[in-house]
């Protein structure tokens, strides 16, 4: 597929078909993830592939996603906010639990931090996080090439998830990615238009 086509195809999807994703597609996407740039040349990234309901429930419990969402409360929270951003949160927030449960696969991307995240003082200390996100984008683009889509969910209770899934203490979770084929009802939200000409600065701001 043309590079531009893949770039445009990759979008966040939170509604999935109940259809298995071939292992080869995931393996290829992980291989492509490992082609990304990395701050220390070591590519200290790992992928945990989850299919079982038991493991998915561990994520849902850790993240306390069991509560139902009050749509009126949500509406109030985003009143007077940017329309496109509001549309995204109104669609996304109620789906956080469902997308983990219904995705045929959930992939957890783990990385080795340079400095413990809570001790980071400068952007440089976050090079490990920046690097793993370049890997995640390669992974998502590679999936999109095969009509497989995902959503990057960033957990709040990383310590709990690490202990439930036996992730070594010295590692961190970058993202939890429910993924699969797009359901017919999947909502692809408008990307916020950006006036790119105004975002380009030459020689100085
Ligand atoms: C760092 C990061 C964190 C995100 N966190 C979440 C999340 O917790 N839950 C969710 O449903 N989507 C999450 N998203 C997906 C964004 O909502 C989505 O990328 C954004 O709305 C733009 O849409 P697009 O990916 O289709 O271009 C996250 C994306 C990024 C890059």
Please, could you describe this protein's structure?
The chain is an alpha+beta fold. The protein has a single domain (3-199), classed as 3-Layer(aba) Sandwich (NADH Oxidase), CATH 3.40.109. It contains nine helices and four strands, in the order ααβααααβαβαβα. It has helices at residues 3-9, 23-33, 53-62, 71-77, 83-92, 96-102, 127-145, 158-164, 196-199, and strands at residues 45-50, 105-111, 148-150, 172-181. It has a four-stranded antiparallel beta sheet, sandwiched between helices. The protein starts with a helix and ends in a 6-residue tail after the last helix. 22% of the residues are buried. It binds flavin mononucleotide. Flavin mononucleotide binds next to α5.
Q: What hetero molecules are bound to the protein chains?
A: flavin mononucleotide
Count of distinct strands: 4
* CATH class category label: Alpha Beta
Low-pLDDT runs of 5+ residues are none
CATH superfamily: NADH Oxidase
CATH architecture type: 3-Layer(aba) Sandwich
H/E element string? Answer: HHEHHHHEHEHEH
Helix-strand makeup class: alpha+beta
How much β-strand is present in the residues? 5-15%
How would you briefly describe this protein structure?
The chain is of the alpha+beta class and 205 residues long.
Characteristic terms for this protein:
205 residues; NADH Oxidase; 4-stranded antiparallel β-sheet; 9 helices; binds flavin mononucleotide
In terms of topology, how is this protein built?
Blueprint lengths: L2 H7 L13 H11 L11 E6 L2 H10 L8 H7 L5 H10 L3 H7 L2 E7 L15 H19 L2 E3 L7 H7 L7 E10 L14 H4 L6
Antiparallel strand pairs: 1-2, 2-4, 3-4
Helix pairs in contact: 1-7, 2-7
The structure holds flavin mononucleotide.
Flavin mononucleotide binds next to helix 5.
